[in-house]
Amino acid sequence: MKGMVYKKHLGKGRHKLEMAPLVDVVFQLLIFFLVASEVRPTEADFKTNLPAAEGPLDRRAERKDVARVYLRNLDPDGKAVEVSLNNEVLPGDAFKELERRLRAARTEKMLVVIEGDPTVKLKFVAKALDSAVAAGAPQITFGKPQT
């Protein structure tokens, strides 16, 4: 048997890219991704029923087992914050003291309302929330900012 002889084509312009198969592959990929993709609603389309600020917050004041945590900036830069629980300013490491007092006053239906100045940094709100969770508060909510 003779070996196969291959000819080398070295000329320019001899290679052509066929467009018909390329267009077919592109349309097949397009159809595949259209069929396989999932259409989700955007965040703006979610229907939510948020309570008005005046109604539910006023009813919370009637409850006896409400712990109101209020955060207030001590300096214009927002680097220090004053923490008060039921209108009593907490001394020392305020967030540890907050956790200790919430744990001592905890009941099954206790509600912790975290409120504060609109300028209080989020890290302080998160610390107050962490203290309430660590104290085992069964219900935690946020009040409208005081202006």
Give an overview in words.
- The chain has helices at residues 19-36, 54-60, 94-105, 122-134; strands at 66-73, 81-85, 88-89, 111-116, 139-142.
- It has 147 residues and is an alpha/beta fold.
- The chain has a domain at 54-142: Nucleotidyltransferase, domain 5, CATH 3.30.420.270.
- Strands 3-2-1-4-5 form a five-stranded mixed sheet, covered by helices on one side.
- Helix 4 links the parallel strand 4 and strand 5 (139-142).
- Helix 3 (94-105) packs parallel to helix 4.
- The longest helix has 18 residues, at 19-36.
- The relative contact order is 0.13.
Walk me through the topology.
Blueprint: H1 19-36, H2 54-60, E1 66-73, E2 81-85, E3 88-89, H3 94-105, E4 111-116, H4 122-134, E5 139-142
Parallel strand pairs: 1-4, 4-5
Antiparallel strand pairs: 1-2, 2-3
Helix pairs in contact: 3-4
| Poorly predicted parts | none
- Please write the string of helix (H) and strand (E) elements: HHEEEHEHE
As for the CATH topology of the domain at 54-142, it is Nucleotidyltransferase, domain 5
> DSSP helix count?
4
Which CATH architecture of the domain at 54-142? 2-Layer Sandwich
CATH class identity of the domain at 54-142:
Alpha Beta
Helical content, roughly? 25-40%
Key terms for this structure?
5 strands; 34% helix; alpha/beta; five-stranded mixed β-sheet; 147 residues; single chain
Characterize this entry briefly.
This protein has 147 residues and is α/β, with parallel strands linked by helices. The chain contains four helices and five strands.
